[in-house]
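Quick log. Single chain, no ligands specified.
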Amino acid sequence: MEILIYRYNSICEPDIIQAFENFGIKVHQEKAEMTDKSITPHQCAMKITEWLLAHKIAFVFSINFYPAISYTCNRFKVPYVCWSVDSPVAELFSNALKNEWNRIFLFDRAQYEFFRPYNPDHIYYLPLATNVKRMEKVILEMSEEDFSKYDSDVVFVGSLYSEKCRYDSLVLSDYTKGYVNGLIQAQMKVFGYNFIYDTLPEQVIREIADADPAFYKGQDVFLDTDRYLVAHQYIGMKLANVERVSILSTLSEHFDVTLYTRSDSSVLPKVQNKGGADTLTEMPGIFHAAKINLNMTMRPIETGLSLRIWDVMGCGGFLMTNYQAEIPEYFEIGKDLEVYEDTKDLINKIDYYLNHDAKRIEIAVNGYEKVVKYHTYEARLAQMLKTI
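-> predicted structure:
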């Protein structure tokens, strides 16, 4: 079997390619967009066309959804398989979502339930996974010096979203800024349910959409995307920034907190920022050596488990994460990982696990063993192939 993967440099792509090749599948790669982000949908379609004319391709695969690929595959009657790893993905609102030859896999059940009615026979739910063998190799090659370098009490690896928050650049009325601030403060007190989308007034949506000249205006969409994008791309990103800074600042008053990020962390003077961490060579060691790995899921991921959850546990790291509705479907809380309900609960649980090494290590081992057994890329892609 031969397949084509259209790449844009997602961190998941190498692991997925390896898993397909482990199944004996020949994987062709279209890499133009990895270095040239100005490629147009027409150019994308032409590149896919060239591959389909030159090779007997069983299906075309991509991370996230590309309407241009979907339309091209539909014309050739070749399955287009994609797997979302992000939320939101504005391109899912394209009319291309309804194409017959789509095989779309969404990792967030809320995202899946939102979009499935528009193409019920060709949209599926599939959680994310991890490459245990790749990370195990990195960990086994770590020296004592490496373990010492990465040893930390509380670690957070990720963006603070200060540099990605388009909301901050907008000129808005005092009413809208006050409303959004109140909404963010209220949402920060609630885990497991995202109410921003349902509670946005039209006045606020219109003002935010009109304030950004680069606001996404799809020309080929089946629904008005404004509410969805304002809730998730603008307010959701701002919420992620406010929440992460607030939690890390509070934790740094009680514990030694280490941060790996390329974001500006000057607002966190008591947090030790060690800069960005390489996904392939450094993160496995960080996750494995840290006493407590903190995960704060972006609220646009409404119910699903982010890639960070799978990767930390796949490294044998102890995971402390916010509650997500899908966690109990895959893991036993307090046995495989630990969750927090609010900042006070987080402080109490970090204090407990820093003082109970044996229990913390037991949980990390349990989580690791469950991920190894059920949640590798091979397991997920086997399920995907069976489905399509």
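Residues 339 and 345 are 9 Å apart (CA to CA).
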